[in-house]
Design a protein that fits this description.
Layout (H helix, E strand, L loop, with lengths): L1 E3 L2 E3 L9 E8 L5 E7 L1 E8 L2 E8 L10 H10 L3 E9 L5 E2 L2
Parallel strand pairs: 1-7
Antiparallel strand pairs: 1-2, 3-4, 3-7, 5-6, 7-8
């Protein structure tokens, strides 16, 4: 579960936002990891000879980061982690605090 401003952040909160900057904290060791994650990516597909763009949602709800050490900790220690969204991003380059 992701927390933003002290509340659970769900798919219903995404709206037109692009992604988020996050902090994952190991509650047993106090190790911290900061990263970014997008809610979706754009893919292009050929449909009747024309290229069409569509969105594919990411695994952001269950995501625990890409850092190998963090992945090993999640595997060995279980889900003893606080997952907090620090900023919500309107596009790849701009974030806002809501």
């Amino acid at each position: 579960m992701w927390i933003y401003n002290g509340k659970e952040f769900t798919e219903d909160n995404i709206g037109s936002y692009y992604g988020f900057v996050y902090l994952i904290e190991n509650t047993l060791t106090n190790k911290k990891y900061v990263g970014k994650k997008f809610f979706y990516t754009s893919k292009t597909k050929q449909v009747k000879g024309k290229k069409k763009k569509f969105k594919i949602y990411s695994d952001w709800q269950t995501y625990y980061g890409s850092n190998e050490e963090l992945k090993k900790d999640v595997e060995h220690l279980g889900k003893n982690f606080l997952k907090e969204q620090l900023f919500i991003c309107v596009n790849q380059k701009v974030f806002v605090v809501i």
